[in-house]
Amino acid sequence: MRKCSLTAAVACVAIVGFAPAVSAQNCHTTVAQSYKESYMQNNIWPSQYVSAPRRAICNTFAMMTNNAWRQQNTLGKYHFNNDGTELSLAGETKVRWIATQAPMNRRHVFVQQGLSADATASRISSVQQYVANGYPMQGNPVEVNETYRQLESHPAAGVDNVFVGFSTSQPAPVLPDASGGGESGGE
Length: 187
Fold this sequence. Notes:
The protein is mainly alpha-helical. It has helices at 2-24, 31-43, 47-72, 89-100, 117-134, 156-168; strands spanning 74-75, 108-112, 143-147.
């Protein structure tokens, strides 16, 4: 019993004795408060460090999603005629899809830069004219922007040749010869 009283007295003296020194450092007002804060930090230990990595991962996925939508909504050289100034049928189809089917917050058309500033300006005006004539959206218009990113694309005829060539080069399905003997596995 005496030992407990002595320990409690030493603890009280320590708290009262260290309080002015601790408050002079502007850290904590009392040792008890310091103990309490340490206890609370230990109880929630991993959670205070989880939000930063989660935020970094979410930001990375958001950037990847934005880049994918930009790639999806980019018009390249195969979406324009041979002069590179007017939309081709493929370009009109893609703009129509972007204007009507893409989510409302993703209705941005990105036009790949032409060989000159004039070619780029004529591409953008062609797309803007097509959008204004065919798809005037109230409240949320389709935006047309220039992009420096190169669209990795292939001509439709070349892609069609690959798939047609693949399907024509497959051998005809043939069933194995039927033998009436019914052989057994052992002799």
